């Protein structure tokens, strides 16, 4: 009886120790827009405002016309608005001959992946307004592009490409 008890205790102890020895799954990576790592100085004062659901830290996927998923595991490495501002400043600095000082305000309503039957896409929408002295110039942001692969890293790259193209189109409008 005593040996049966000791055997049971040893088996229980071994199961408990083996459960403790397994390493927990690695956390999902955080993401940074590649364009946000480039440095550049624009003569413009840039401010990016985000729809509240975009400003929660998680990468956003639109699942249907009425459903959004804000990722809990796949998150931006730093606030999205800061990354977008820095990436846009770099794009404007490399693309533009703007020597004027002015203020560029952007309001983004979408910066996300969208699942659709025709294939998943990255989408950026919003508005911008450039103000210099008494002059005001406005425009809309409507960009959509394919996601070149699977997973969040591919979505981030597609959104970065789109953001660079948005910056280029703003530059053209301001010339």
Automatic annotation (TrEMBL):
The alphabetized UniProt keywords are: Signal
**Pfam families of this UniProt entry?**
ABC_trans_aux
Stored SUPFAM superfamilies: XCC0632-like
Q: Does the keyword Signal apply?
A: yes
- The stretch of residues making up the signal peptide is 1-21
Q: Which InterPro entries match?
A: ABC_trans_aux (IPR005586)
Its domain of life reads Bacteria
Which parts of the sequence belong to the ABC-type transport auxiliary lipoprotein component domain? 47-170
> Key word RNA-binding present in the record?
no
Specify the protein name: ABC-type transport auxiliary lipoprotein component domain-containing protein
């Amino acid at each position: 009886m005593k040996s049966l008890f000791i055997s049971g205790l040893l088996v229980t102890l071994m199961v408990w120790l083996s459960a403790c020895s397994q390493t927990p799954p690695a956390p999902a990576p955080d993401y940074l827009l590649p364009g946000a790592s480039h440095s550049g100085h624009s003569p413009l004062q840039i401010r990016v405002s985000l729809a509240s659901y975009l400003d929660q830290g998680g990468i956003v996927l639109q699942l249907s016309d009425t459903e959004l998923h804000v990722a809990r595991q796949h998150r931006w490495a730093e606030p999205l608005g800061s990354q977008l501002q820095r990436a846009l400043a770099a794009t404007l600095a490399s693309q533009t001959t703007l020597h004027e000082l002015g203020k560029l305000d952007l309001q983004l309503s979408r910066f996300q992946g969208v699942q659709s039957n025709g294939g998943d896409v990255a989408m950026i929408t919003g508005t911008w307004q450039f103000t210099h002295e008494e002059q005001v110039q406005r425009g809309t942001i409507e960009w959509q592009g394919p996601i070149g692969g699977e997973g969040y890293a591919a979505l981030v790259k597609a959104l970065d490409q789109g953001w660079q193209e948005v910056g280029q189109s703003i530059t053209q409008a301001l010339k």
